[in-house]
Design brief:
The structure is a homodimer of 173-residue chains. By secondary structure, chain A is of the alpha+beta class. The first copy, chain A, has a single domain, classed as Multidrug-efflux Transporter Regulator, Chain: A, Domain 2, CATH 1.10.1660.10. In chain A, 42% of the residues lie in helices and 11% in strands. Chain A has a four-stranded antiparallel β-sheet with strand order 5-3-4-6, sandwiched between helices. The first copy, chain A, has a two-stranded antiparallel sheet with strand order 1-2. In chain A, α3 packs antiparallel against α4 and α3 packs across α6. The longest helix of chain A has 16 residues. The first copy, chain A, is globular and about 50 Å long. Chain A starts with 9 loop residues before the first strand and ends with a strand. The interface between A and B is medium-sized, with 34 and 34 residues. Chain A binds a DNA duplex (30 and 30 nucleotides) through α2.
Chain lengths: 173, 173
DNA sequence: TAACCTAGTGACGCAGGTGTAGTTACGACG
DNA sequence: CGTCGTAACTACACCTGCGTCACTAGGTTA
């Protein structure tokens, strides 16, 4: 076991443990384009995928969507939207999925407006919760998964930026 | 076409139009126990299923869940909960589905508490919206679907009961 | 009673998502 | 340079949720 530090990002099997999915799923999601490792793709049997910290968060979002009974298809659309409209400030708001579109709601009021306005079903993903969740899971496994502590992680504090009085609201589809 | 009034409830193909699903789906959902017609079950090729008004509303809920990308599996659990905990006062609250349990949230505050408290994904179904929705759809098709105007319908007004200051909150699983 | 319309039934098939298992190949170490 | 561990690849199979289509059987009307 060589000294950690040279590696960046997380490798496939490790990601599975952190996120709580099977390797088969991770593989399938890569091949079908749901989410491919942004640091290093697989290039044959002997190689290995390398996922960034953000990748892990996104994967965890997908996992939670699945757990709550959302289709992979719907998750795909949600992730597409997420990638387009969320920058590096993960945990900034709530991701709200309607029947045909996705929205970012910054605070509770916006959320209530959305829920009151539309007559359909909404799937709500509290992003900050997911980010905290991922952090905990990494720490818990940290003892075992000694190597590959990511430099892609945006430093332990910076994720905590609270939402200001901005009223921006992205929308897609 | 005999004078309407002798019949009660809605027959299969009609329900499909109102709810917006295919006959195959309705059939499948009956056979697999998701929702069977509460007024009359099918008893052979020549017979016909008879659905109550509440059945139609529930079916519409399922349909909207599907549209928003929720699995049939999850919908099954949701409907089980719905049947157990919602009486005849449909449209009373919001049906909130978490990863492992279902909840009825009466007002916006309860909703926000739920969303803030849990760190998972939530699927929110505004029941009053669904009831209105069904009503409109029946009216729209009413001109064409002349027959079988249900007596199971709880009279055009009585559904509108507003939620009082009660703080009951059912929960399952 | 024969002809029809309507609605439920059965069999078949397909696609997506995933488990299982065996195979292959990179990279490290002796 | 051979061996080994690990991770990715391939093939197969299964299960759910339907679409399609041909078939069957009440009920009604002629």
């Amino acid at each position: 076991m060589p000294g950690a530090g040279s590696e960046q990002g997380y490798r496939g099997p490790q990601v599975c443990k952190i996120v709580g999915i099977t390797y088969r799923q991770l593989d399938h999601w890569d091949r079908t384009g749901l989410l491919r490792p942004s640091l290093a793709a697989a290039r044959g049997s002997g190689t290995q995928r390398l996922y960034s910290y953000k990748d892990v968060v996104v994967l965890r979002i997908i996992k939670q969507l699945l757990d709550s009974g959302v289709t992979l298809q719907r998750a795909r659309k949600a992730i597409d939207f997420f990638r387009d409209s969320v920058g590096d400030d993960l945990a900034s708001a709530n991701l709200v999925l309607g029947a045909s579109d996705s929205v970012l709601a910054r605070d509770g009021d916006e959320l209530l407006d959305l829920l009151r306005g539309g007559q359909g079903v909404f799937n709500v993903v509290p992003l900050s919760g997911v980010v905290d969740d991922v952090r905990h899971r990494i720490v818990e496994l940290g003892a075992e998964a000694h190597e590959a502590t990511a430099t892609a992680e945006p430093a332990p504090e910076s994720t905590r930026q609270q939402h200001g009085p901005t009223d921006r609201q992205a929308r897609a589809r």
